[in-house]
Structure formats: C-alpha cells, structure tokens
Amino acid sequence: MIKNVVFDIGNVLLRFDxxxxxxxxxxxxxxxxxxxxLVFRSDEWLMLDRGTITETEAIKVLSERxxxxxxxxxxxxxxxxxxxxxxxxxxEILKQLKEKGINTYYLSNFHHxxxxxxxxxxxxxxxxxxxxxxxxxxxxxPEKEIYMRLLxxxxxxxxxxxxxxxxxDNIQAAASVGINTIHFKNSQDLIAKLNEVVY
Length: 199
Hints:
Elements: E1 4-7, E2 14-15, H1 18-26, H2 29-40, H3 43-50, H4 55-65, H5 70-77, E3 85-86, H6 88-99, E4 103-108, H7 112-121, E5 130-133, H8 134-137, H9 144-153, E6 161-165, H10 168-176, E7 180-183, H11 187-197
Parallel strand pairs: 1-4, 1-6, 4-5, 6-7
Antiparallel strand pairs: 2-3
Helix pairs in contact: 1-2, 4-5
C-alpha cells in the first residue's frame, strides 16, 4: 500500500527552462548557448546544488574564468529565480494526494538562496510533511545516500513510497534502494500512473 509520495521540484512542480530564460534576457542565439554552457552546465552550478559554494563565490569564479562573458554571467544570475514558475497541473495533483491522506514530501537538488526564494513565493510548499534538499545535506541526486536520508529522516518504508522525477538517472537511483518510482513526463501521464497505485 502506498502511503507516501515524494516529488522532485524542478520540472515537476516548478518549471525550470534556463534556455528560454536566457533567450528572453539576451535575444542572441550564440550568447544564449555559450552562457547555458558556462553557467548552467558548470561544475559551480552543481557545487551550488551541493551547498559547497555560495552564489557570490560562484559568480566570482565564473566571471573571472570567462572574462569575455563576465557581464553576461553576472546578468544571468540577476533575477534567475524568476524562471522557476509553478506547474499548476502538477500542483493540483499534489493537493489531491494531500486530500486523500497521502503523506507528501519533496526531494530535490537545489541552491540555498533559490530554495529560500521559492519556498517563500509558493504556497504549495505548505502541503508537504517535509523534504530533503541537496544543499542542506551536501548530497546530490542520483547519489543513493540522499534517498536513504529521506527514508531515515521521516521513518518511511521504501515499499510504501513513490518517487516522482523527470530525470531517469534519479528514478533509477531511487529504485535501487527499493522506492517505487514514476518517471515524470506530463501531468496527464502522472495521474494515469498514480491511479494505478494510489487513487
């Protein structure tokens, strides 16, 4: 019997589309691709998720390493939290699960300041019993330890739990510790799969 549903946040509950954000900001295809690579695919971006570097430090390192694009890098970090917009259809599913008495949690890779921003801005976080966020734990999905931390912290059984994530590697890692999983594609597909096991 499923008692717990665990949500990833990015591209499950909050849309995260850095390419679209950069396109609106710069309107320059070559610059967009370059900044996408230099910032969002950098080691520092992962270090921010892991909580081993501050945003100020990341901006400094990235700007100094890529001097030609330093102003664009600084501009990218200015207001980037706004690209994290609610995915209302999935949030509605979260509400329905809550109404049915299912325990709900989050498990996400997230930066410190960005996470504080989205928690304050989005009411749906109040629907969760709790959750695990990477920067606090100094762990990242798909490392097995982060899933174990969730199970241990909230004393939940993997066989009674479903984890929803849009990234296949993260899904496979959760499954490896015995957690049931749903690979998120869209809200309609999610409802159909949840209907089979929860509703």
